[in-house]
Amino acid sequence: MYVLLVLVGALSLCNAFPNGAPKAACVNMTPHHIYFNLTRVQAQTTPSPYSVTVASNLYTAGGTVKVLVGALSLCSAYPNGAPKEACVTMMPGHKYANLTTVHPMTTASPYQIMVASNQYSPGATLKVQIVGPQFEGFLLQARHNGNTGPVGSFSNPPTNTKAVTCTSGSDSMTHANPNAKQNITLTWTAPTDARADVMFIATVAQVKNVFWLNNKSPMVTLAQGHQKEGNHV
């Protein structure tokens, strides 16, 4: 009788160069790290957080030039809530110290927007939750499908969050500080004259320079018996 032992876990490196890059990296600058399953470690495809800064844009033969390699620090961020400019695009507007824009992640978002019900009535209250790993910042709105303006209002903000006004009173929710948050539940009240289905949409920033746009809830439909109008559905 044979017993097969299987170890399941994160891939660790079998081949790495802790004491310096190998000779083979001199031309293509690839470190040639390999996992234990002999697959190559691939380069990251997201924008690099590192910068290479040179003390001068001129040099002379035999001269010395200082080169600084370091992580780009954020020059512009909004630890106390999303700025007014983010109301339509949902872009936080973060910038690195070199004034380049921090771009959203292109990988699948680890966050979900969950709504307590798949339908609503005018004036009704719904619970909305941001589900996923810990995060620092966010901006969340209810919108008619295809529109860029928020509808309804939020109340009773949980700890470390606050309601803000983009178009009319408390129509958006955002962070009040950069403290870690997780699985927060928000309270939304539908407009009393609601005439269309809605969707909740959020930007969620795990940390200042790592954020995902277009985190969307399933569509929440206007309950039967209420007339729908316009091109929002």
What is the string of SSEs from the N terminus onward? Answer: EHEEEEHEEEEEEEEEEEE
Annotation field: number of helices: 2
Low-confidence stretches: 2-12, 68-76
Q: Which CATH first-tier class of the domain at 86-222 would you pick?
A: Mainly Beta
Count of extended strands: 17
Radius of gyration of CA atoms, rounded to a whole number? 24 Å
The CATH topology of the domain at 86-222 turns out to be Immunoglobulin-like
Keywords:
single chain; 233 residues; mainly beta; Immunoglobulin-like; five-stranded antiparallel β-sheet; four-stranded antiparallel β-sheet; 17 strands; 3% helix; elongated
Tell me about this structure.
By secondary structure, the chain is mainly beta. It has a domain at 86-222: Sandwich (Immunoglobulin-like). It has 2 helices and 17 strands. The protein has helices at residues 25-28, 86-89, and strands spanning 13-15, 34-35, 50-54, 67-71, 74-76, 95-96, 112-115, 119-120, 125-131, 137-144, 153-155, 161-164, 172-175, 184-189, 198-207, 210-216, 221-222. The strands form 6 sheets. A 5-stranded antiparallel sheet has the order 12-13-10-15-16, with no helix packed on it. The protein has a 4-stranded antiparallel sheet with strand order 7-9-14-11, with no helix packed on it. Strand 12 (161-164) and strand 13 (172-175) form a beta hairpin. It is elongated and about 80 Å long. The model is unreliable at 2-12 and 68-76 (pLDDT under 50). This is Reelin domain-containing protein. Keywords: Signal. Residues 1-16 form the signal peptide. InterPro entries: Ferric-chelate_Red/DefProt, Reeler_dom, Reeler_sf. Residues 72-233 form the Reelin domain.
